[in-house]
Design goal:
Helices cover about 30% and strands about 5% of the residues. It is mainly alpha-helical and about 725 residues long. A hairpin with a 2-residue loop joins strand 1 and strand 2.
Length: about 725
């Protein structure tokens, strides 16, 4: 009887111990003791065998408990062979990398606390720190969840807490191992300076685990994996043969050859050439807006062609039919997007119209992301007008009225000065006849820079001026050619070489610029300096457009069958004159037909002797002005169409040779010497009929007629614009 009583008391004490130790280790303050809300609580089958009667529970004791789990069947269990229901515990995956915090990061809820210090021996961190850490993270799963009270705080089993602490210890050991090898970040190394209490490894007793328990996957410390070293030395790499078609992925290569763009690595990239640079500042402003149609024509290298524009920048094709955009820093290729927007996809390398279509290696896989295009040709458009209707101005009924300025292209009723086919002016005062050229040295510098880069703008010398020289600004309204001012200064220097003022040019800053009078060779240039060098009729009209005032020159023009109208058309065509700069037929015709008598001063008709073919300038004379020499390359200033083919004689060949050989300071009087140095002949090509002068007019008659239409239409447009400025044409008033 006494034995049964003692056994009953012992059982009661064990039950009380079990119920006492089933509460969580860490409870928030001011929490009621009876968490379950009832007098009886089923002890957890996972926690029951870990506590002995009367033994004090400490964090160290919890770490030492690694014994086999004895499964107790709770009351009401259907069978003893199954485990009791329990809430699955959350497994924490150790991560050795540090970056942005995510829910998968260990101790995600406690990242504001400093990390523990790196231990020297793999072990466990301080028990209190570990308990606080996991209590704050809230990642443990409470045992009370199995009681069905959702409002209560989840209670974690002692075994789960122990497993979590073991995993944290292993994680801390792996971190200390990495910190010792220097693989962690600087911020991590700085945060691991606190001293951490580490428990000895031998205090952890790993017990056998039953089938109902599952340990977390062991954390494998990160290894230092070094990148494989190349077996090729630097010398061996240099000696490797180049690939036939290397797929280069460097940034420089992609900038030069954008995939799917306008260039291809099979063709050479263009060399730096001053003629392949274009600055948008050269686009003239017309009525407050830039007008690219009035930009001077481009002077491109041989084989290059100007096709279109991308904004202000011109698009040109090189001899390999690669498209480039001329910019202030040189030619740049067009990416795929600009190629398709400009309608050039068929003509660049890789297009169907390219001369080597289908023969080039495909570089499409190296896409630059700019290949999103819209296929305008493959879509059946639905337009609000009949399909196939032509809206071209030349095919419409009002095309003639529109061309003549009778209709406005916008409203169709009011007259407007709008010429669709109007040619743009290729004269730019800042380049062709700039201000600020003080002396001969500045003039030669301007002439040299102009030959090297026709688009270059002259920069005056800051230390030169006409101040205190006694040279005043000219009283002329318009500017004279710079080459003409140079010729006058050169003659003054030849007469007075010791005069410091003789080398100064005339001051004509701020005067009116004229595309003809400010560019063309003046009449006082001594053309007889050519001597025995023959000159073609087209060269005479191109390089010496004012010399029809010389009697011998007019005799040759009339003897070739040219009229005053023909001479006018030649001058307007070769220089592309427009507006007030165009030559008048009446003036030139009067000079070819009439002359002034020396005695009476009257204008009488010229009676010419029978024409004798002579193609040199020997025996020519002009007494109205003092004659001067002239810079050789200045003869071509202002020309839009240079003499070509049989029209290009020895004079053109001498100019070309001087330009190619850097003889920019050559004068007209040096032409015979230059031809001798170049080994060129002094004679022109004989014509098929024996007289090359009489073959000039039939050869150029069509282009002269076409250019004549341009000049007349331009004059008509200007007249209508003037009438519109006066509020319409004045109506006739009938008077009585």
């Amino acid at each position: 009887m006494m034995g049964e009583l003692q056994q009953q008391q012992s059982s009661d004490m064990i039950d009380r111990g079990r119920r006492a130790h089933s509460f969580p280790i860490y409870e928030p303050p001011n929490k009621p003791a009876d968490k379950m809300g009832r007098s009886y609580r089923t002890p957890s089958p996972r926690r029951e065998p870990y506590f002995a009667e009367g033994e004090e529970i400490t964090p160290k004791l919890k770490l030492n408990l690694r014994r086999p789990v004895v499964m107790d069947t709770p009351p009401g269990s259907p069978s003893d062979g199954f485990n009791a229901p329990a809430t699955p515990t959350k497994q924490t995956v150790s991560m050795t990398t540090f970056g942005l915090l995510t829910p998968c990061t260990p101790n995600f809820g406690n990242f504001f606390r400093p990390a523990p210090a790196s231990p020297t021996t793999p072990g466990l961190t301080d028990d209190s720190d570990v308990g606080q850490q996991h209590g704050a993270s809230g990642s443990d799963v409470g045992a009370g969840a199995e009681d069905g009270y959702d409002s209560d705080k989840p209670l974690a089993t002692q075994f789960d807490k122990m497993q979590q602490q073991i995993r944290d210890a292993e994680f801390a050991a792996s971190l200390s191992e990495e910190a010792r090898h220097g693989r962690s970040r600087r911020s991590t190394r700085l945060a691991l300076k606190d001293v951490v209490k580490v428990a000895p490894v031998n205090t952890i007793k790993v017990a056998a685990i039953t089938q109902s328990m599952k340990l977390a996957n062991p954390v494998v410390p990160a290894r230092n994996v070094s990148s494989p070293e190349s077996s090729l030395t630097a010398d061996a790499v240099v000696q490797l043969p180049p690939d036939i078609n290397p797929a280069v992925l460097t940034l420089d290569w992609q900038l030069q050859y954008p995939p799917g763009g306008s260039t291809h690595p099979s063709y050479p990239y263009p060399q730096m050439d001053p003629r392949l640079f274009f600055d948008p500042v050269h686009v003239p402003i017309v009525d407050g807006l830039p007008n690219v149609f009035r930009v001077a024509p481009l002077l491109l290298p041989i084989g290059w062609r100007h096709v279109s524009r991308s904004g202000f920048l011109p698009i040109v094709f090189d001899p390999y039919q690669q498209a480039f955009k001329l910019t202030p820093i040189g030619p740049l290729p067009l990416p795929c997007e600009e190629v398709h927007q400009g309608g050039l996809a068929k003509y660049v390398p890789g297009g169907k119209e390219h001369p080597e279509a289908g023969l080039l290696p495909d570089i499409a896989p190296l896409s630059d992301g700019s290949d999103e295009i819209y296929n305008f040709e493959g879509v059946d458009w639905t337009l609000p007008w009949p399909k196939g209707e032509n809206f071209d101005g030349s095919a419409s009924t009002g095309a003639v009225q529109l061309a003549n300025g009778l209709l406005s292209p916008i409203t169709g009723d009011s007259p407007s000065y709008t010429n669709i086919n109007k040619p743009y002016s290729h004269y730019i005062e800042a380049q062709d006849c700039p201000d600020g050229i003080v002396d001969i040295a500045d003039a030669w510098r301007w002439l040299t820079e102009r030959e090297l880069d026709p688009t270059a703008t002259f920069v005056p010398s800051p230390d030169k001026s006409w101040k205190n020289t006694g040279i005043y600004r000219t009283t002329r309204v318009g500017k004279e050619p710079i080459a003409s001012l140079m010729a006058l200064a050169l003659s003054d220097v030849a007469v007075s070489p010791n005069n410091p003022i003789a080398s100064y040019l005339k001051n004509q800053n701020g005067r009116v610029f004229c595309p003809f009078r400010s560019m063309a060779t003046p009449v006082h240039v001594k053309i007889t300096l050519l001597g025995e060098v023959e000159i073609t009729l087209v060269e005479l009209l191109s390089y010496f457009p004012n010399h029809y005032l010389w009697r011998k020159c007019s005799d040759r023009l009339v003897g070739a069958g040219l009229t005053g109208m023909d001479v006018t058309n030649f001058i307007n065509y070769t220089r592309g004159l427009e507006g007030d700069a165009t030559r008048s037929n009446n003036t030139i015709n009067a000079q070819l037909t009439y002359e002034t008598e020396v005695v009476s001063g009257k204008r009488v008709k010229i009676v010419r002797e029978p024409h004798i073919a002579a193609y040199s300038t020997e025996g020519w004379a002009y007494t109205a002005w003092e004659l001067t020499d002239y810079p050789l390359l200045g003869l071509a200033h202002g020309l839009k169409h240079m003499p070509e083919g049989p029209d290009a004689g020895p004079l053109t060949a001498a100019m070309k040779w001087a330009r190619e050989n850097g003889r920019y300071k050559a004068l007209l009087s040096e032409v015979p010497e230059l031809l001798q140095q170049a080994g060129l002949q002094l004679l022109i090509e004989p014509g098929e009929s024996g007289d090359p002068d009489k073959e000039v007019k039939p050869m150029h008659v069509e282009k002269l007629k076409k250019d004549r239409i341009r000049v007349l239409e331009d004059a008509r447009m200007r007249k209508r614009a003037a009438e519109k400025a006066e509020d319409g044409k004045r109506k006739r008033v009938k008077t009585e």
